[in-house]
Structure to design on (376 residues):
C-alpha cells in the first residue's frame, strides 16, 4: 500500500477527507473513520483564524475532536499574516491539533471578495507572509496548504504558489484541478496535478477533483504521480467510500461496499444521532442532517414525497419511522457512484476592487478581510 508522510504522521492509505463547510464536523469524520478502520487523514471544517484567536463559541465547538481522532487535523482560513500566526501558535501551545492545513482554495464569493481562499495566491508576497508566519508559529506541527489552479484561465497561480510553499517550509500541497472561476463545474484538470508534482518534487503533492470512486483515486495517482488524494464531494452521503479506498489501495476491490437501502438507512440514522449528541440537541441534530438526505438516497426508488418528508423530519423517531417505510431490500443502485454535490460553474470570481492590477501589490489587503465566523 502507498504511504503518505505529513511531517511525523504516516497516512496509510494516502487518502485525506477534504474540509467541507457544514459537512466535515466531528460526527461525519467519525463515520468516515469507522468505515476506514481509522486509516487516512480526516480534516476539520474550515476554521477562520480571527474567530479562533478570539475564541468564538461556535468555532471552539468546531475544533472539537473525538478522543480517537489521531492525528487531529485543523484547516485554517486567514488573510492577515499576524492573525494566522497567532492562530497557529494557539493551536500548538494549547495542543488543539496535530496538523494545520491552510485554505487557499475556497471559491465562494463571501471568501474571495475579501481576498481570501482561491483569490489569495495571486498576491504572491501576501501568500509568502502567511505561510512564513504559520510555519514559524506552529511549534513543529506540520503545515500544509490546499489551493486551486488559479483565479481563472488568465490568472494561473499554482506553480508560483507551490514554489513559495516549498521555500517557506510547507510540508505538503493539495491541488484542486480547477480554477476559482470553474467553481465545481466542468472537469478537473488532472494534468495540472502532474505538473505541480514535477515542479515541487521536494514535498508530497495531493490531487483533488472528480474522485467519485475508489478506482478514481487509484487512477489519479497512477496518471499524475501524485502522492495522495483528497476526497470531497465524492463522499457526500457515502462515508463508506473511505472503506472502499482502503480496499482499493490494499488490492481488494472485491470488498467495495454496495450497501442495500436497509444498510444506508442504518447509517443515516446513526449520522443523525451523532449530530444530535455533538450538538447536545436531538432536534438540531436531525435538522442539521436534513441536507444529507438527498445524497444518501441518490439513485434509490423512494419517491419524491418520501424524499420531502425525510428532508423535513425533526426527530430521531420521525426519521426512523420514515426510513422504516422504505423498500429496505433495494440493492445499491446502478450509477449512484457518480458525481454528487455542487456541480455548477461560475463565470466571474468576486474579488476586491483592483485585486488583479498587480500581483505584488498587497497594500489593499486589510485586517478587516478576516472573517469573524467559521465554516465558510
Amino acid at each position: 500500500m502507498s504511504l503518505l508522510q505529513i511531517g511525523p504522521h504516516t497516512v496509510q492509505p494516502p487518502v485525506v477527507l477534504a474540509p467541507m463547510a457544514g459537512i466535515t464536523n466531528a460526527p461525519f469524520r467519525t463515520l468516515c473513520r469507522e468505515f476506514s478502520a481509522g486509516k487516512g487523514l480526516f480534516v476539520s471544517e474550515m476554521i477562520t483564524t480571527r474567530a479562533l484567536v478570539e475564541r468564538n463559541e461556535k468555532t471552539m465547538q468546531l475544533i472539537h475532536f473525538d478522543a480517537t481522532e489521531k492525528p487531529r487535523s485543523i484547516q485554517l482560513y486567514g488573510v492577515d499574516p499576524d492573525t494566522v500566526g497567532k492562530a497557529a501558535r494557539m493551536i500548538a501551545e494549547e495542543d488543539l491539533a496535530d496538523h494545520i492545513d491552510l485554505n487557499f482554495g475556497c471559491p465562494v464569493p463571501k471568501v474571495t471578495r475579501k481576498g481570501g481562499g482561491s483569490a489569495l495566491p495571486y498576491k504572491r508576497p501576501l501568500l509568502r507572509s502567511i505561510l512564513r508566519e504559520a510555519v514559524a508559529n506552529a511549534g513543529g506541527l506540520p503545515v500544509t496548504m490546499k489551493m486551486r489552479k488559479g483565479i481563472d484561465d488568465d490568472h494561473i497561480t499554482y506553480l508560483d504558489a507551490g514554489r513559495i510553499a516549498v521555500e517557506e517550509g510547507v510540508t505538503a500541497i493539495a491541488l484542486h484541478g480547477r480554477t476559482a472561476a470553474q467553481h465545481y463545474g466542468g472537469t478537473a484538470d488532472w494534468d495540472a496535478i502532474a505538473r505541480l508534482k514535477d515542479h515541487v518534487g521536494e514535498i508530497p503533492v495531493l490531487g483533488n477533483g472528480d474522485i467519485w470512486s475508489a478506482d478514481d483515486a487509484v487512477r489519479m495517482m497512477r496518471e499524475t504521480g501524485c502522492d495522495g488524494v483528497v476526497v470531497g464531494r465524492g463522499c457526500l452521503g457515502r462515508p463508506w467510500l473511505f472503506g472502499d479506498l482502503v480496499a482499493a489501495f490494499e488490492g481488494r476491490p472485491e470488498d467495495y461496499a454496495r450497501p442495500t437501502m436497509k444498510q444506508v438507512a442504518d447509517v443515516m440514522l446513526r449520522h443523525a444521532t451523532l449530530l444530535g449528541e455533538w450538538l447536545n440537541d436531538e432536534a438540531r441534530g436531525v435538522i442539521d442532517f436534513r441536507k444529507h438526505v438527498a445524497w444518501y438516497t441518490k439513485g434509490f426508488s423512494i419517491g419524491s414525497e418520501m424524499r420531502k418528508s425525510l428532508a423535513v423530519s425533526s426527530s430521531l423517531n420521525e426519521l426512523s419511522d420514515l426510513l422504516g417505510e422504505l423498500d429496505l431490500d433495494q440493492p445499491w443502485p446502478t450509477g449512484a457512484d457518480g458525481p454528487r454535490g455542487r456541480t455548477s460553474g461560475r463565470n466571474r470570481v468576486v474579488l476586491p476592487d483592483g485585486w488583479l492590477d498587480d500581483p505584488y501589490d498587497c497594500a489593499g489587503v486589510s485586517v478587516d478581510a478576516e472573517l469573524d465566523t467559521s465554516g465558510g
User: Anything to note?
Assistant: Residues 261-324 form one domain.
